[in-house]
Structure formats: structure tokens, C-alpha cells
Amino acid sequence: MALKSTATATASSSSSSLCSVPTLFFAFTLLCTLSFSLFFLFNPLSSPSSSSSIYRNAFHSPQNSIQVFVADLPRSLNYGLLDKYWASGPDSRLGSGADHEIPKTQLPKSLEFPPYPENPLIKQYSAEYWILGDLMTPQAQRTASFAQRVFSAAEAEVVFVPFFATLSAELQLATAKGAFRKKAGNGDYERQRQVVDFVKNTEAWKRSGGRDHVFVLTDPVAMWHVRAEIAPAVLLVVDFGGWYRLESKSSNGNSSDVIQHAQVSLLKDVIVPYTHLLPRLQLTENKKRQTLLYFKGAKHRHRGGLVREKLWDLLVNEPDVIMEEGFPNATGREQSIKGMRTSKFCLHPAGDTPTSCRLFDAIQSLCIPVIVSDNIELPFEGIVDYSEFSVFVAVDDALKPNWVVSHLRTFPKEQRDRFRRKMAQFQPLFEYDNGHPGGIGPIPPDGAVNHVWKKVYQKLPMIKEAIIRERRKPPGVSVPPRCHCT
């Protein structure tokens, strides 16, 4: 069954004016004719023969919205994957009692919009669920949404592909991790293939080469097998770590990171926040913090995360520093809440990728992030200035004995309080959950979903330019991908 919306399209209206004075009417008509002719003479994008919606709408969209068409994928590729998840057994990667999932006995049968898992290994990537939930909300309730849903691809500025790519990957990883990178017998690969084959056969994709399509790839391994095919699209990613070409064993944390710039770039893609796993602490609830620096997580990581092991060894015996090995299960969650809320600073070293949901847990806990990740990319930059509430430390400095602790002790209480007040202002920007069952309902205007679409909106001129450049190439001419260095 194809994905259907509960929203309804609205008809547009036009108005006209009449003038009873013949001379004025003639002058007005002549002026309109001249203006119309000049418009077509100097604006090649307005050619009536152009069928690409990006040409028609790029300069005419209201400043408070972006026109979004939702590709008509079957339900089995989004909410149907939630049905599959809730019908499956416990996640083998979580220990006993670790999962906060809603008991299956409490889930109504044939639920149109099932809840997203509380399983922390999956919940941290839930942006795909909340973004689609907003678009599936009836239009009358979407007054605060920056994205305006349209029901014709020809009217859209971008096409949203409603594939729960993260959930698809995690379902495969939970059942047969060893087969994940293989294609045979890999359910996730079959779903990836189904999505790509569907969208590439649509007229919307053929018009733009996929450049105006939007995919949510918050899990570093989402759509692993088809990345080269969707590379022209706008990718919503938490960072570019999953796209690095690094040999984890040979890099030793010192090799320069080579990003496949032909596939990912800040010029076309959007960095989005992880979903935080810890509850928000209001500024009025903040209490005295005794610990200087706190970290909870896995000590052993790969690639650039090798720096974490070195930091661990340097900091584990420092006074006023807590370094805990832990897993995001029920016990670990409670420990993290306590640790982050009673600490002045929270360490955020690179892991397998440059960032993690730990950063956003720290923000929600009003614990000043100490970011040790030279290659990190952060969501909503240009809207958020992270230096106003975070401490950035170069890896080389962090690995000097006693350097980190000594540096953090130089921040007076007044400055820490300013950081915390600024952090409280930005907490809502990193919130996806709209508080409605199934994610269907009005969203907060200052939340993560709207800011994701605002960042996509900023890409529209670049998308338009890329489409034009591709179309003007003579037949048979192939231009190699260029480095989109930033």
C-alpha cells in the first residue's frame, strides 16, 4: 500500500483589477507587455519549455516555507518497518533489561503510525521519523511548519524520500550483523535497492538527476550499498564520518581524513542533530555542580576515535574527573543523567565518527561540552554559534599531560554561567519530539524539524545551479566529480 497523507491540498486563488479609463488601461497593458518581454529576454530560467519545478519556484517561494513533495514510496519502507520492528524479538546487541521499549502487548494492532523505538541504539537516529511525521500531519495543523507539503512534484522545490533508512539498517544489524556488507540475503540491501530503483524511474528524478531529492541518512551506515547512486541528492547526515576513506588499523589517529567530496559536502548536504537520549534540564532546575569533567561511553573506538583511548588514560586518574565505561542501557542512562547534571563540563571526544548523541545529551543537561574532535561538523551552524557555550580543544593539546584539566580550571564561574544560559536558549533547536502519538501533529516552530528545512532551503540556489550546469552539457560529455572543499 502506498504511503498516503492525511493532509489535504489547498487551492490557490488569484485576483484581478479593472480600470475604466481606456488610456490608463492601454498604458498598463503596454507596460506589462514590455516587462514580460524583458523578463523572458534576460531570465533564461523562465522559459516555458522548462519542466523543472526548481526553475519556477526557486525565487517565488514564501520566505517562511519550502515547498516539499513526498515521494510515494510504499508503507513497507517507512511505517511498515516499525511494524516489523515491534513484531521482532529483543535487540541482541542490548543486555537484559536494557531496552525501554513499549511492551508489544500495549501496541494496538494495525496501528497506522506506530511509535519509534526507545532502544537507544536506534532512537538516537530518529530524525527520519519526526521529519516524515510533520509532513504527514494534516495541513490545517501545520501552521508552524517551515515545510509546506505540495501534492505534485512539478510544484515542489524538493522531493522528500520517506525511507526509514536507519531503521532498515538497524533491523539488519540486530539480526545478522555479519551479513550487513553483503548483498545476498541482506534485507536492508533489498530495501535500499527498491527505494533507489523507484525514485530513479520517476520524472522528478530524471528532471534533476536527483539533485533536488532529500534523503535522511542519520545512521553512519544508512543506505550503505547505494551511496554512489544517491550522492547528487541532498543528504541529511549527522556528520561525514561514515564517508571517510580511512584504514582504521593504519591511520593510528594521525592520518589526514580524506572525505569523498564528490559524494558529500557542506555545500549541498545538511548536518542534522542526533536525537538526544537524556531529558531536558531547565535552567531553573540547575543545581550546584561538584565534578569538573564527566564522560561516560565506550573507551575503545576505531578510526579518529583512537584519540579517546589516549584521553582516557590521561584523565582517568585526575581528581574531579569521572571517566565511566558504559553502555546506553537503562542503568547507563540513569548514570549519565546524574553524571551530566552534577558536572561543570562534559567531554565529547571523537568516536568511530567525529560526533555522537552525547553532545546533545550534554546540551540538554546544561553540561558545558568540551569538544575534542578536529574534524567535527555541527548542525545549524550559522544559526548557532557553538563557541558561545562550548569549549573546543585541539587533539594535539588534549593529548598533552594535564593540559585539559588545567585549561578547564581557567574558566571562572561567571563565564560558566554565561555558557549555561546561552545553552538553555538553544536547547529547543535540538528537540525533534513533538509530543504527539506517532509523531503526527503540530511541531514547535523553534524545534529541530523546522531548522532542518531552513537549512535545506538555503541550498536551493545551489541545487538550481547544479541542475542548470548539468543540463547545458552537450550529449556525451562527461565531467568528473569535483572536490567541494569547504
Describe this structure in words.
The chain has 486 residues and is of the alpha/beta class. The protein folds into two domains: 66-243 and 261-274 and 453-470, no CATH class; 283-429, Rossmann fold (3-Layer(aba) Sandwich). The chain has 18 helices and eleven strands.
Outline:
With 486 residues, this protein is an alpha/beta fold. The chain contains 18 helices and eleven strands. The relative contact order is 0.13.
Strand content: 5-15%
Number of strands: 11
What is the CA-CA span between the terminal residues? 42 Å
Measured on Cα atoms, how large is the radius of gyration? Answer: 25 Å
Number of DSSP helices?
A: 18
Number of structurally distinct domains: 2
Report the mean per-residue pLDDT as an integer: 82
Query: Biggest sheet, in brief?
Result: 6 strands, parallel
Q: How do the SSEs run, as a string of H and E?
A: HHEHHHEEHHHEHEHEEHEHEHEEHHHHH
Which key phrases capture this entry?
2 domains; alpha/beta; 5-stranded parallel β-sheet; 486 residues; 10% strand; 6-stranded parallel β-sheet; Rossmann fold
